[in-house]
Structures are given as structure tokens and as C-alpha cells.
Structures
1.
Amino acid sequence: MTVLFYGQALSSALMLGTAQYPSPEILRDAVLAARPGVLTVSLRRESAGERAGQAFWSLVHELGVPVLPNTAGCHTVKEAVTTAHMAREVFGTDWIKLEVIGEADTLQPDVFGLVEAARILSEEGFKVFPYTTEDLVVAERLLAAGCEVLMPWGAPIGSGKGLNNVFGLRAMRAHFPAVPLVVDAGIGVPSHAAQALELGYDAVLINTAVAKAGDPVRMAQAFGLAVQAGMLARMADPMDARDMAAPSTPVAGKAFLG
Amino acid sequence: MKITVNDEAQDVSATTLAGLIDELGYAGARIATALNGQFVPKTERGRAALAAGARVEIVAPMQGG
């Protein structure tokens, strides 16, 4: 079973962010260790003297992993749409990870602005990856606006708390069996990533958990393995949990020793 | 002519966005531009006239999550 994101298969269910690494070399080594299917990138003001963005672009280009530009830090529809236009020109892709942030403490999405921006961008031919919540009504609106992928949060961005609402994520998976779903934000350790895939999610997006680990390269490798394990487990159809014990060793034929 | 570029005051002689990119030393760089909050595609920069007080944004690839 190959999940397609706007018609494109990914080489791994791991989407990896490129921010907050201790150095460009560590970022490069982390990417080589994790072997992600996608790298997320962003746009910021460029100084003609420093040209920091040009050096970063050379590094990403050299790694050869498909990029997913984001609209991180945008709080209005207009900001997000304009940023998407700029990202399309700079990165040469119509993929956009759409973030319209609505609240400063939790960085949760402004879902009203998100739906509006998603509609505008989808009509303009963008392939929108919306950073959303697990709210099913919002999800329906995003799909109606033209989105073919949904990216609910696991927990607030950068919190590392894992899957805060497993019930909600499970309901979303059940409600949209044919829509590619990605847990974006909040994953802290590899077991969270494996859990998301075991729940039936098609990918996970991780940044801080790798970049802020004591050893980002080793953690990147751990996430790469966790994603492989989670995907294998999902394909293997996990057993149902039950409340009472059930003996795994057969009782029949046991010697009478009483 | 006084304008702002990436929120910094600049006194420039260029009269178009394309001219400004050259004047400030961005030639050949992978960048995107906005003039007064509106995206200006690369192909339109030569026709995008600058007026005093213009607000120009010049962005480039950067690390992101």
C-alpha cells in the first residue's frame, strides 16, 4: 500500500524539519541518518551581505530530498498567502505547509483563517498541507476547500508531549480512511512517532525532537528506525487491546502436578 | 530616494524593484520579493516602480519546521 501525497509517493514516512540544529553540518548528518521523505523549509529576510539563505539552499539542494516550504509565523490569511507565493517562486514547488497561527501560547492554528487561506491557495493551484487540529468539522472544511492531505497536531509545536488526544486522532483516521494524514507537531521521542503510524497515520513531521536532542544525529537515526517500525506494524495489522488477561501459552496438555 | 528594505531605512537610486535588487547586491541570489505587502514575481520586478516610502521585502530560503 503506497500512500500518495498529491500524487507523489514519499521514500519515508518521516518528514523532517531543518530548524534549530546546532550547525549546518549536524543538520546534514541528521538528514543522512534519518533518510526522511521530505524536508520542511521556510523563508526569512535575506541580507545581501551575509546571504545566509543561499548557503542553506545549497545544503538542502545537495541533500536531494523533496522540500515542503512552510508559512510558519504567519498570523493572517494575507501573510500566509503572500508567503506561499514567495515560497513557490523560491523553492520551485507548489507544495505548501500552510500554517495560520491563532494563539501565541499554544501556537494552535487559527482554523477559520486556515480554511480561507487553503481555499485561496488551492484555487491558485497550490497543493496545501494544512497544519490543523483533530477537529473533524474543520477537517471537512479543509477538504472542501481543496486540501488532499491533513496534518493534525499531536501536541503544541515544540512541546514534545506526544499524542495528546489519541481518541481524536483515531476518530480522524476512521472518519477519513482515504485521506493522507500526517501528525504534525508535538512529537518528542521516537515511540510517539511509531504510535502515530500504528494508529494508521501515513507520516509524521518532526523537527524540535531531533534538533534539540543532546545528539541530533543519533536521534535522527532513531526516528528513522521508529518510523520504519511503526509503518511495518501498521501494515501487520496490530491486535486488538482487551481489558482482561488471555494466556498466551496453551492450557491444553498442561501436566497435572497438583 | 528613501525607502525601507527588510525594515531598514535605505537611500537608493534605483527606480524599479529589479534595479534595487542589483543595486543592493542580490543579483543571482535565490530570493523572492514583495513591494508594499504584495508579492512581486521575478518576471514583474522590472515593471515594479519604486516610490519614496516604499516598503520592500526580500526573502530567501531559511531553516524551517
Note: Chain B touches chain A at residues 6-7, 24-26, 29-34, 37-39, 41-42, 57-65 (CB under 8 Å).
2.
Amino acid sequence: MTARQRLLADVTPGDELDPAVRNASRVQLFLYSAATHNPHRIHYDRDYALVEGHPDVIVHGPLQGAWLSGYVTSWAGPRGRMLTLTWQNRRSALPEQDYTFRGRVRGIDGDVVDLEVWAEAGDGTVVMPGTATVRLPVT
Amino acid sequence: MPLDPRAPVAAVQTPRMATHGLVPEATTAMVGQALGDPVSALVARRESQRYARAVGDLDPIYFDEEAARAAGYDGLVAPPTFVGHAVVEGATLDDLREDGLWVDRGRGRAVRLNVSRTMFGGEEWEFHRPVLVGDTVTAQRRLGAVEEKDGRSGPFVLLHYETTFTNQHGDVLAVSRLVGIAR
């Protein structure tokens, strides 16, 4: 399988990344808990999540981070290299809700592209702001 | 932007004065210190791929060695943020708290707070080298800073953890700076 490779020359500051929507089912939350050996009840036990003041079980912050990681690396292409990734889980994310990932090229330093990336809830609220730097191939 | 992996980790911040007594002095005294011994684990193909499927990232470099080599890697790659999960030891069922998390035995290095409800607040990653399936990863965690804050729903504590991941050759693979929220 050959994915299209993004090259440094393809990128200009101000470019916007194509948006991508993520929506976690409750089964995905369970599978993520299992794959990461995470027993925290707020992610699978709704009654307990309510006790802690959450409106429902909540999406793991690091799962949203993994979504962001995939959003950046798929943009960079197979020969791109993600050098840094940061995010803040500013609001809880809920299962069965759409979250739209977006990004913008902030700058380019040599072959390293500086991105602003974030996830928005359905009402446009930013639930997770972040940044990434990516090294792109020249040829 | 990528930092020098040999640079000292943890720019240790001066702990703020606790205003609500949520942070015991013994915890404040641990800022900057290692939390427990280093933990090592083999990066297993199946575990890496289960993680990739669970997060929905089906990049061929995680599943097809030929694709990974074509992309310039020396073998199958693990998803970048998987390394933090590869080293999770777990504990016995007797060590589970009411919220499902493990009692932090910490071998004398447990971070104790006077609040127990915890949430993940965010993370900063530096990726220095790819994590390859078959690598043996060693993680060393340190307590970065502990800050008590006032929020709309009352006081809370921000815990900064810094983890350095190295491979079997002693190369730094990644550094994670994670923020936990306790209230």
C-alpha cells in the first residue's frame, strides 16, 4: 500500500489541514481501556462516573491524544516524522458525540513544519487545543 | 524545536504555597525526584496493534513490515503514544480503589494528596526516535511540579509527571510531560 507522501514544498504557512471527525462508541472506550490496561471506572461505569460529577462515562484524555497523533501523522504521510505533540484536555469529551479535528500550518523552520491542531465539539467549542511539529521529506 | 535528549529533564518549578491543604508537605518535598525504579517492557507486536486498532489508527507502518521499511523505518513501528502504555505493570485486584485506579504503593515513593478524584489534563510529547516492535523500553518517571489551584468548582491540584523512555541501547526514544488533575 502506498499512501501519498506530503513533501515540504507542498506546505505553506497558513495552510489548513483537512478536518477529520472522531466519535467514540462505548465499545471503543472499553477496547481502549483494555488495550491500555486502564481500570479507571469513569470510562466504563456510568453510575460511578455520575458519582464523580461527570454527565456520563467520559472519553479518555489520552485516547483523544491518540486521535490527534493519528490526525497529524496521517497528514505528514509515511515518510514524515512527528517530532513533538502537545495537547490539553480542556473539557471532558463524551461517547457518541462527534469531535472535529482541525489544524493550521503556523510556520516552517528548515524542514520542520509547526502546526496548531485542535478538536472541536459539535457547537464549535474547542475541547482540546494542541500543537505539533513534523519533519517532512524534501523529495 | 526538538530538544536535546541529553539535556537535563524536568525544569523543576518552585512549588506554589498550598492554600487549601490538598498537598501534604511530604508530597511537595518529592518534586523533582524519581518516582520508583525504572520499569522495562518489551514492545510486543500484538499489544501495539491492539492499541492501534483500539484508537482507530490503521497506518500500515504499524501492521505491515514492508510498508514500515518503505517509509524509512528499520521494522514495524508502534504508534508514537503507545510507548507510555507498553510499560504499564498493573496490580492485583486487591489493590484497586473504589474508582478502579490502583492504590499507589509506590515503594515508598507514592504521591499522596488529600484529594483522590483524578482526571487526565493533557500531555506534551517529544519523539526522538521511533519505537520499534521488539524494542525493550525502559521508563523512568519523575514528579515535575505540584500546583494547587482555585477552580470554579473548588480547589484542585495539578500534578506534572515527566517520563523518559529509553531503548535497549540507552537511546532516548521519547519524553512525556503529563498533567494530572486531582480534586
Note: The longest strand of chain B covers residues 136-151.
